[in-house]
Design brief:
Blueprint lengths: L2 E5 L2 E4 L4 E8 L7 E7 L6 E6 L6 E3 L7 E6 L4 E6 L8 E8 L12 E2 L3 E6 L1
Parallel strand pairs: 2-11
Antiparallel strand pairs: 1-3, 3-8, 4-5, 4-9, 5-6, 7-8, 9-10, 9-11
């Protein structure tokens, strides 16, 4: 079992930045692909970013490419999402997820999920 806890969400003005953190426990995440997903009110959960097992490959949704950066520190069992140039459309609950695979973007294939952290971007 892998337990995931997100932190770092909050209220920020458009154009601002936030850094989300995801702390893993229970097992080392060094053999897990990690992803960030988000869900806005009334919308389905959508893929944001994913990073491969050892961090050599990253993949981003077109809507966040160039603004968000995913990273991981396997020694600390942590995953991060640096979000810059935030837009009101980025407002959502952000979730960290893990799957025992190289790199996956499909949320249905992720096995472990955190409880989420709210990000609100005001215009």
């Amino acid at each position: 079992q892998v337990q995931l806890v997100e932190s770092g969400g909050g209220l920020v003005q458009a154009g601002g930045s936030l850094r989300l953190s995801c702390a893993a426990s229970g097992r080392t995440i060094s053999s897990y692909a990690m992803g960030w997903f988000r869900q806005a009110p009334g919308k389905e959960r959508e893929f944001v970013a994913a990073i491969s097992v050892i961090g050599g490959s990253e993949y981003y949704a077109d809507s966040v490419k160039g603004r968000f950066t995913i990273s991981r520190d396997n020694a600390k069992n942590m995953v991060y999402l640096q979000m810059n140039s935030l837009e009101p459309e980025d407002t959502a609950v952000y979730y960290c997820a893990a799957v025992r695979a190289f790199l996956i973007t499909d949320p249905d294939q992720y096995r472990y999920w955190g409880q989420g952290t709210q990000v609100t971007v005001s215009s």
